[in-house]
Amino acid sequence: xxxxxxxxxxxxxxxxxxxxxxxxxxxxxxxxxxxxxxxxxxxxxxxxxxxxxxxxxxxxxxxxxxxxxxxxxxxxxxxxxxxxxxxxxxxxxxxxxxxxxxxxxxxxxxxxxxxxxxxxxxxxxxxxxxxxxxxxxxxxxxxxxxxxxxxxxxxxxxxxxxxxxxxxxxxxxxxxxxxxxxxxxxxxxxxxxxxxxxxxxxxxxxxxxxxxxxxxxxxxxxxxxxxxxxxxxxxxxxxxxxxxxxxxxxxxxxxxxxxxxxxxxxxxxxxxxxxxxxxxxxxxxxxxxxxxxxxxxxxxxxxxxxxxxxxxxxxxxxxxxxxxxxxxxx
Length: 330
Prior knowledge:
With 330 residues, this protein is α+β, with helices and mostly antiparallel strands. Helix content is 29%, strand content 7%.
């Protein structure tokens, strides 16, 4: 038994399966029947196939616009829009614009579980160029290029895959409807121009006494409110504006009340800016000058004929003075 026999057959090796192994469980609820013509389509991208299966599993009336799908999946709007155009080009999807009774335009999407041959081609599906044969790790034979694999007839029981097109060729009786992704982006609204800042009012005539009153008024505002302690520079800048108020007949007490009343309770970071805003925005109008008209002389009784006449002082009327040559009343 210690002699080794090399002619004995080796032990049986376990069989290693190649490719995919299916373990199927029969579904009784929440399932969707999808044809192999879609799941094994040779011209559709993997994103388009998955999107078509997702759309076919949705209930009637579900939203399948680009924004809703981009919010549901990790792919962006650009990739989802391209996949929808692929499905339209191969007859699995159709989109058309419809106007409601209230004037609103909506997009109506129709999903087909069987490709519609009469659908307009809305996307130019790129055809890959010739590539070198790639080794197939499962079989050890070189894999055929993509173009040659597309020319292989489909398996029995499967409808032939539609041939890829290089240009959009809509049907003559249907005009291509632009999808939401092809709509031009609205131009951004121009920003409103900022309102020009109004300058501080200035007096029409220079009056040293009025300017002194305005300076004293501004320098003493901190007595009304300690937060209104202005610097010398701010007092000299705001004094002409206060002089313009005084020139228009506003009393100094009224100017002080306008500047100190109704201030917010929180600390004032820029008290001079608050005073400048109030002096500019609350400037009263100029008092219009009314022309003074001369009043007529009062009525006087003539000392000679007792008639009424107008004169600054009592005396004789012009008729009596003419008759008796009396001097005119002073």
